[in-house]
Structures are given as structure tokens and as C-alpha cells.
Design brief:
The protein has about 250 residues and is of the alpha+beta class. Helix content is about 45%, strand content about 20%.
């Protein structure tokens, strides 16, 4: 960041003193944007300039396109495209081949070019979500405004999943805790509180016994996964919000 500020004085750098989470951090930058389009690139993504050019050409083609994203080349997994159908609430990897650009009801925020006007209409990302699930929430809200979300399968960005921080037990705990809490938060927001309440109870009933079993069998990986998922659900029921230490 220091090098960018030194070599490109025309760039406005927004330096937050604390870790605000993905959505709030993005929004603090969005507040300074004066261009028609806003580019989001996660710290664990590498993308070439020609890919950005393709994305720019695509979003300019129709005023109803709110976001354009490339396919993601993930080490060990190959090229991935995440999609969701109308009325669905969970996104998944595409199991089809496409010869050209296509629309979906979900767009990953790993690397995306957004129409700034569309983001401002929905007030950007939901800052209650610290990390994970924020792009699903954004996609759901853009869909309600009848915006299109376009994927370009013929161009790719390199995405190292969870590559923005060194692997650790803490990192995996935080990831699973936030996945659990964030999913329940979205269920409450978009479907209803009672559905979220019973889904949280079901998650605890399913995952807590498994976490205890994995403790007894010294399976650290699964203990962290199911323990964090359980605690995320309990925290949701208690009304606790995510923070950088979760």
C-alpha cells in the first residue's frame, strides 16, 4: 500500500485503523468512489489486466448489469463458477459448460466489477456480516431490484481460497464460525426469524455431539469445524455479532 501511495499520488487510499470485516471495509472505499464502476479484488486473488478489460466491456454493454465476474481458477480444484437459480438461497459450483457469458442469481465477490449506482441503491454490503456470505446477501438484494449478474466463463482469475492469511486453527475456527453465523443471519433477514431460530437449534443438535465425539477421538480438524459451527449458531441465538476475534 505504501508503494502505491508513493508511486500513484492520484490514488485515494482509505486506511482503516481496525479490521472492519469485508463488507464494512469495502463500503468505506465505496464512499470515496466517483467512477461509474467499482472493482472488488480479494487479497487472495490475482487477476490480469486483459481479464479486467473483458469485465469492463461486458458491464458497459447493458445498464441493467449490476456486476460482472470471471471464472475462478482455484489450486487443486480447477476452474470454478459459482451460481444460483431464481428463488434459491444457496449458491453452488456450476455443473454445466457455457460457451459465452451467462446470468445467474449469484456473483462471487472474490473479484467483481460492480455498477456503482446499483451498489449505492442497496447501500453496499451489509456491515453486520464480518466475512463470508456477504456476497450472497448482496446478490439477493440486487436480484430484488431486477439487476443482472453476469459471469464470463472464458476469462479466469487465480483464487487461492483462504490465502489472505496463513493457515492455522484460529483461521479455520473463524471461517466456520462466521459461515455458521452468517448463514443464520441471512435466513433471518431474507426468510424470517422463526425459520432462523429453528435452523440454529437444528445446527446445534447436529454439530455439537459430533464436535464432542471428535474431541474424544483426537480429530482436531473435525473438532474445529463442528465446534466452530456450533458456537456460531449459539452466538446467533444469543444475539452476539461477529468481531475480528471470532
Amino acid at each position: 500500500m505504501a508503494a502505491i501511495m508513493r508511486d500513484h499520488p492520484e490514488v485515494t487510499a482509505v486506511l482503516n485503523k481496525n479490521n472492519l470485516g469485508f463488507g464494512a471495509g469495502f463500503n468505506s472505499g465505496l464512499n470515496e468512489v466517483t467512477t461509474p464502476y467499482t472493482l472488488s479484488i480479494s487479497p487472495d486473488v490475482e487477476v490480469e489486466l486483459d481479464v479486467l478489460h473483458e469485465m469492463y466491456e461486458a458491464i458497459q454493454s447493458d445498464d441493467q448489469i449490476a456486476v460482472v465476474a470471471p471464472a475462478l481458477d482455484v489450486p487443486g480444484h480447477g476452474v470454478e463458477m459459482w451460481v444460483m437459480g431464481p428463488g434459491e438461497f444457496n449458491h453452488s459450483k456450476a455443473d454445466f459448460h457455457s460457451d459465452g457469458a451467462f446470468c445467474s442469481w449469484f456473483s462471487s465477490a472474490a473479484v467483481s466489477l460492480y455498477r456503482t449506482e446499483a451498489l449505492r441503491k442497496i447501500n453496499g454490503f451489509d456491515e453486520n456480516i464480518f466475512l463470508y456470505n456477504e456476497d450472497l446477501d448482496l446478490s439477493l438484494r440486487l436480484s430484488k431490484l431486477k439487476y443482472a449478474m453476469v459471469t464470463l466463463p472464458h476469462v479466469t482469475a487465480h483464487h487461492i481460497n483462504s490465502g489472505s492469511a496463513p493457515p492455522s486453527v484460529k483461521l479455520h475456527w473463524r471461517k466456520d464460525w462466521n459461515f455458521s453465523w452468517g448463514h443464520l443471519y441471512l435466513v433471518k433477514k431474507h426468510i424470517g426469524p422463526s425459520v432462523a431460530f429453528f435452523k440454529a437449534l437444528k445446527t446445534i443438535a447436529l454439530k455439537a455431539p459430533k464436535a464432542l465425539l471428535y474431541i474424544l477421538t483426537f480429530d482436531r480438524k473435525r473438532t474445529v469445524r463442528d465446534g466452530a459451527t456450533t458456537m456460531g449458531a449459539i452466538s446467533f441465538l444469543l444475539g452476539r455479532k461477529p468481531n475480528p476475534r471470532d
